[in-house]
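User: Sequence in, structure out. Go.
Assistant: Echoing your sequence, followed by the structure tokens.
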Amino acid sequence: MLTVRMKTLAMVVAAALVAGCGSGATSTPSPSRQAPAPAGATYEAYRDSYTVPWVGSPDFTNLRSTLKVEASVNGGPASPFTVDTGSVGVVVPAAEVPNIPADSPPGSLTYSSSGLELTGVWVTASVSFPQAVDATGAGAVAQAQVPVLAVTSSTCRGGGVNSGRCTGAIPHMLGVGFGRGTTARAAPTHNPFLNLAAMTAGTMRRGYLIGRAGLSLGLTAATVTGAWTMQQLASAGAPAEGSHNDWLTPTGGFQSGSGPIHSGKVLVDTGLLDMIVEADGLPSNGTVPAGTGMTITVGDLRYSFAVGDGGPQTPTEVHRAPARHGTFVNTGLRALGHYDLLYDADGGIFGLRPE
């Protein structure tokens, strides 16, 4: 979760950061249960897309760090930025943002899982991806104009499940999640992956695909290939800012050991490597003991692991937290050892493709 504050604005944006991918067998729906693509998943009319390579060629079968792409803010230096589906908005050290207006409004945010509080100013700036190529493989100008938090100071406030790992370092973050809250700072207008110039012009389908070959921006029939299991998302209601709709996170749940199946919402969060589970009747803190079997469901898909089994896709830890969101599981990054991920912001569609 992240909390954003301005002079006259206080908000809470859910951005828990954790993992949940298992070393156990991945099960996919049988052909008779394979969910058909929702009616809005039509990509034949679109040709424009960008591909951005991952920094460092990550091994998706054993992810040990967050996924990063090169980005530049306001023409400043290109740096590796973490792609974070658990938050919304761009965070960058202010020293790397040229030409910050003197009257930029102050603001701050706090990542709840680590307790890291960042303070700086909000500035509407260009965010560009210098390594992007277009659908033909040629270098292309991939750029969005979005509000950015240019950070001048940071503090470890404690309180989160990962607060012991907080160093106070100012991160480079691309918050590209959805369903993270109803305030303006959680609106799609702050998401750089949904506000590229071609998307604003209407020639590119608003959405992205996180896969082994790289990050795809813009959805087309050529990029959305293979056996995707797609889920139609529920509307988050009228946006607090801008005209584009936001969507709630997908349905899912978890089972711990031989306990009951807890059904609610799921967040595939690429921000951290551990997992968080919440449900009424369960402990509200601590970790799930090593050796406990866990089964995670996301729509019609499910995967399993045993806590601490050492599997390359098992989350580093499974944390318990108060059920503030009802039944909720934050799978974290390592779920992508099992699946590629698709988010269609125009159609309100979430998809996973087993790998």
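User: And one key feature?
Assistant: Residues 1-34 have pLDDT under 50 and may be disordered.
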